[in-house]
Structures are given as structure tokens and as C-alpha cells.
């Protein structure tokens, strides 16, 4: 089963001030480094293991060229590795070779991921497809996801993936927990299905969790969990394209097909190529319900899950796959999770290099659980533990750096102590500073003897207009509260009548 993969590169409002949300001090979210690698490269490696037939990177017009240029070295390494393997295995074992999956870059003008999918991506989809974020790291092989999707029920249009937070150091207040309603189907052979999602903010405002009566009639054994997180991973069947296609385009396509079939030169084989049903899927008549896609993908699939029970006649369902707790899955979509993703990769490196001991640079001690970028200078009597140092960093004498992420071009003067801090690009920190659990925006100058704990240092942009700040706040609200729209506004009845 061949999939087309679409990787969405968001703005990363929750990773400010290190993403390029204002000014020029940040970088694109997809290019934010995790253990000195672009975070999107981990997603591309995962897609390479999955053997998808095509990988598409979807980003804003202003960022797509920057991402393409930054990934040029990654793609060159893939090509060179393939050439080396081809020379090594040829000619007797060439059948085991597989060319690197082609990577395409799609520039978009859409404001929401749902609108981008409906208006710009559906026309490019030719079969089953998968939607992915650019910020996840996992040790769960993609074949687990694919096998779960292959075993889906015939009436499932897609499979949504959820996970539980397994990292204690991630700030729970930053995570976007929501109330997920799903049916486990324990007494049935059917897979669990997604029924509804309520934001934590809406439940706290209304003081209670409102579940529709018709949902309980259709699924009386439904479960509610407030510990599940949305992974933004969706495996979708091709039939979803027909359902989400706008009415104007759908009517135009049907008229074009009817005109083609009036010609005797068009055979039934060409008609089957147009439909392209999912293999082993008993194709039923798909009811074309209006779906509002001018929102995030999380809300689109929430509405698709509601569609399965809010009508009097049965509709197709959306499956839900809860990742096993034995595996690791983490999204770097908030700052605390971003730091924990770096530490996770550092621990993986330390476990592989445990037999070699801690390397040393000059008279300084750099732990085996740390990564130091190219052309970094570390002075004597400085210790670096469980930290990441970017390129061209200069660390002074008698400094102690523990559990930190330090980006490129940072200068740290003598006798500084940094613990659990993220330091932006080209920042300068004066002598005898102590930063604990703090974030410093790029190009910031920290004066000598500064003591900070739990603070965020950012630049002040006086020239920013009120309209710009309002739009930024609305974008942040959209990013942090995926399910914040009012539930009652969308339902005027209890779903007992056909619409």
C-alpha cells in the first residue's frame, strides 16, 4: 500500500521567541535544531523507513525557499549514501537497493491547515495519503502505524493517532490537553473510533462536560480521556478526497466525467482510474455532507468524527489509534517539550557512546551526553553536561552548562552558570551570570552578573502596530486551543433528523 506523505511546517507560535514570529531573530519552526539537526529531518528519516512513495513538504510562501535550501545538504547526503551502497552491493545484490523517496516542496498561501488540504492538496492526491507534522520524534517504527491502518474497518475513512505524555519533565501547563471521546469497542471486532473532542478551555468555562445524547444512543460504551494528546498524524483513504472536495470543483469534475463517457473512445478502465478506491475496501455510496475546512486539521477530523453519529443514517467513521506507552513519541511544539526532545536525543547518544567515556576538548570537560557543533571554542575548567551547543559558540572559563540548548553563534563570558536554559542565536551573555529555567531570544545581550530564574528575555518592537499584534494573538489562540469553537453553535438539534 503506497502512501503520499504531506508534512506541514507550521509557524511555531508556541516556540517563540526562537521561531520567526516577529522580527528577524528566529528561524522557521521546521529548521529549529534538535541535537544540532533540523527537527524536520527526524520526520524525513521516519518517512524514509516507511517507504512512502512520495514526500511533500508544505510550508508558507515566505518559508518554503529557506527550508528547501536548508535541506539541500540533507538530500545530497541521501543521494551519496545511495551511490555508495549501489557500488558496494552491485551487481549481485542490486535487488535489495531502493532509491531515496523523492521530496517535493509545496508553497501555500492558506491560513489554516484544513483550508490548505482542501484547496491546494486534494488535487495532488492520487491514492491513500498521510498527514504529518514537522516536529515529532519517535522510536516507534512506521510499520506499526501502517499495519494498524491496514487492519482498519471497511467503513473507516481515516485513522487519527493519539499519544500520552511519557516525559515527566515536560511542563503539563504548556501541553494542550483536551477531552477526547472515543469508543473502544471492547465487545466488538471493530477498531476504536473517534467520536468527539472538547477543549480544556471550553470545559472549564462551562463547568461541565457536555456530551450529546445522540452520541450516547449510538455509542453507549463511549470513553472519555483527558490524558490523550493529538499527534497530528492522520492516515487517510482516498475516499476522503471525494468527501472534502468543494462542491464547485466536485460538480465540475462530475460534468467533465459524464462528457468523457459519452465518447466511445473512453473505456471503463479509465473510469476506474478516476475513482481509485482503496484496495480491499467495499465501496459504499458516500454521502456528501458539507464539511467546513477553514480551520485546523484537528478540528476537521473532529467534525468528521462527529459526522459518524450526528445523523440519523449511519456514516463512515474515523478510527483512533492510541500509541502504546512502551514506545516514545514527543512533539516539539512547546518549549518544554522542545527541550525534552533535545535531552532525549542526547541520552540516546550517551547510551551508544557509554563504552567510550566522556570526550574532552582542550582542558574542558564535555560529557558524552552532550553535542558540540563545529568551530566551537570552550575554555579551561568549563563543564558541559546534557547540553547542545550550536556552531561557532564561544564559552569562557569556569562555566557550568547543564541541560541547556545553545544555538549558533552564542558567546558566554567567564564564570557563568546556565541550567535548563535555551539561548537564541548570536546571544551574548556577560560575566558571572546565572540563568535557570530561562529563555533568551536571539541577538540579545545579557549584562554581567545577571541572575534569572524562570524568565524569558525578548526584544521589544515599538514599531509594531496594534493590528499586527491582534492578528498574532489570534494566531496564537488558534495554535494553542485547537478545539476552542463553541460546540452549541454548530448543532441546532440533537441529530435526530436527516440533514
Q: What keyword list fits this structure?
A:
499 residues, alpha/beta, Spore Coat Polysaccharide Biosynthesis Protein SpsA, Chain A, UDP N-Acetylglucosamine Acyltransferase, domain 1, 10-stranded mixed sheet, 7-stranded mixed sheet, disordered C terminus
What's this model, at a glance?
The protein is 29% helix and 23% strand.
The global form is: globular
Strand order of the largest sheet: 5-4-1-6-12-8-13-10-9-11
Profile the largest sheet: 10 strands, mixed
Share in β-strands: 15-25%
Global mean pLDDT: 82
- Please give the radius of gyration in angstroms: 25 Å
| Tally of domains | 2
Low-confidence runs (pLDDT<50, min 5 residues)?
A: 251-282, 464-481, 486-499
The CATH topology name of the largest domain reads: Spore Coat Polysaccharide Biosynthesis Protein SpsA, Chain A
**How many helices?**
13
CATH H-tier superfamily of the largest domain: Spore Coat Polysaccharide Biosynthesis Protein SpsA, Chain A
Head-to-tail CA distance between termini: 35 Å
GO cellular component, one term: eukaryotic translation initiation factor 2B complex
Organism: Lachancea thermotolerans (strain ATCC 56472 / CBS 6340 / NRRL Y-8284) (Yeast)
Keywords: Cytoplasm, Initiation factor, Protein biosynthesis
Region (Disordered): 464-499
Describe the structure.
The chain is α/β, with parallel strands linked by helices and 499 residues long. It folds into two domains: 4-336 and 481-490, Spore Coat Polysaccharide Biosynthesis Protein SpsA, Chain A (Alpha-Beta Complex), CATH 3.90.550.10; 353-457, 3 Solenoid (UDP N-Acetylglucosamine Acyltransferase, domain 1), CATH 2.160.10.10. It is built from 13 helices and 32 strands. The chain has a ten-stranded mixed β-sheet with strand order 5-4-1-6-12-8-13-10-9-11. It has a seven-stranded mixed β-sheet with strand order 15-16-19-22-25-28-31, with no helix packed on it. It has a six-stranded parallel β-sheet with strand order 17-20-23-26-29-32. A hairpin with a 2-residue loop joins strand 15 and strand 16 (364-366). It is globular. It starts with a strand and ends in a 19-residue tail after the last helix. Residues 251-282, 464-481 and 486-499 have low confidence and may be disordered.
Amino acid at each position: 500500500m503506497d502512501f503520499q506523505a504531506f508534512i506541514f511546517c507550521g509557524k511555531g507560535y508556541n516556540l517563540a521567541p526562537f521561531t520567526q514570529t516577529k522580527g528577524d531573530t528566529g528561524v522557521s519552526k521546521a529548521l529549529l535544531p534538535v541535537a544540532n539537526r533540523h527537527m524536520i529531518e527526524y520526520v524525513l528519516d521516519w518517512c524514509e523507513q516507511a517507504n512512502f512513495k512520495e514526500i511533500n513538504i508544505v510550508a508558507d510562501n515566505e518559508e518554503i525557499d529557506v527550508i528547501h535550501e536548508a535541506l539541500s545538504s540533507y538530500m545530497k547526503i541521501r543521494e551519496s549514501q545511495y551511490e555508495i551502497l549501489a557500488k558496494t552491493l552491485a551487481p549481485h545484490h542490486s535487488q535489495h537497493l531502493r532509491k531515496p523517496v523523492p521530496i517535493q516542496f509545496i508553497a501555500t498561501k492558506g491560513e489554516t491547515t484544513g483550508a490548505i488540504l482542501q484547496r491546494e492538496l486534494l488535487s495532488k492526491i492520487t491514492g491513500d495519503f498521510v498527514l504529518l507534522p514537522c516536529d515529532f520524534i519517535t522510536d516507534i517504527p512506521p510499520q506499526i502505524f501502517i499495519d494498524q491502518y491496514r487492519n482498519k474497518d471497511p467503513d473507516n475513512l481515516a485513522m487519527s493517532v493519539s499519544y500520552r505524555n511519557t516525559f515527566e519533565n515536560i511542563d503539563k501547563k504548556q501541553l494542550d490537553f483536551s477531552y477526547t471521546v472515543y469508543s473502544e469497542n471492547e465487545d466488538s471486532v471493530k477498531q476504536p473510533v473517534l467520536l468527539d473532542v472538547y477543549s480544556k478551555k471550553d470545559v472549564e468555562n462551562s463547568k461541565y462536560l457536555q456530551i450529546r445524547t445522540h452520541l450516547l444512543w449510538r455509542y453507549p460504551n463511549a470513553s472519555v480521556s483527558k490524558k490523550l494528546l493529538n499527534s497530528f498524524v492522520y492516515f487517510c483513504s482516498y475516499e476522503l478526497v471525494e468527501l472534502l472536495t468543494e462542491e464547485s470543483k466536485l460538480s465540475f469534475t462530475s460534468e467533465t466525467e459524464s462528457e468523457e463517457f459519452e465518447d466511445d473512445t473512453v473505456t471503463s478502465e479509465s473510469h476506474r482510474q478516476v475513482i481509485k478506491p482503496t484496495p480491499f475496501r467495499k465501496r459504499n455510496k458516500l454521502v456528501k455532507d458539507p464539511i467546513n475546512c477553514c480551520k485546523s486539521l484537528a478540528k476537521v477530523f473532529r467534525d468528521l468524527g462527529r459526522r459518524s453519529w450526528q445523523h440519523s443514517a449511519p456514516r463512515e467513521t474515523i478510527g483512533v489509534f492510541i500509541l502504546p506507552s512502551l514506545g516514545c513519541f514527543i512533539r516539539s511544539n512547546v518549549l518544554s517539550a522542545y527541550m525534552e526532545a533535545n535531552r532525549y536525543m542526547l541520552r540516546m547518544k550517551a547510551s551508544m557512546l557509554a563504552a567510550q567515556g566522556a570526550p574532552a576538548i582542550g582542558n574542558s570537560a564535555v560529557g558524552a551526553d552532550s553535542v558540540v557543533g563545529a568551530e566551537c571554542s570552550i575554555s579551561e575548567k568549563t563543564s558541559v553536561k546534557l547540553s547542545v551547543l550550536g556552531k561557532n559558540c564561544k564559552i569562557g572559563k569556569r562555566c557550568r552548562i547543564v541541560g541547556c540548548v545553545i544555538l549558533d553563534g552564542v558567546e558566554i563570558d567567564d564564570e557563568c552558570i546556565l541550567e535548563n536554559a535555551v539561548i537564541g542565536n548570536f546571544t551574548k551573555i556577560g560575566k558571572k551570570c546565572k540563568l535557570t529555567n530561562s529563555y533568551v531570544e536571539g541577538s540579545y545581550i545579557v549584562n554581567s552578573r545577571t541572575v534569572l530564574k524562570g524568565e524569558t528575555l525578548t526584544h521589544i518592537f515599538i514599531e509594531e502596530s496594534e493590528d499586527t499584534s491582534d492578528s498574532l494573538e489570534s494566531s496564537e489562540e488558534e495554535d494553542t486551543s485547537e478545539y476552542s469553537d463553541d460546540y452549541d453553535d454548530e448543532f441546532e438539534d440533537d441529530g435526530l433528523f436527516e440533514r
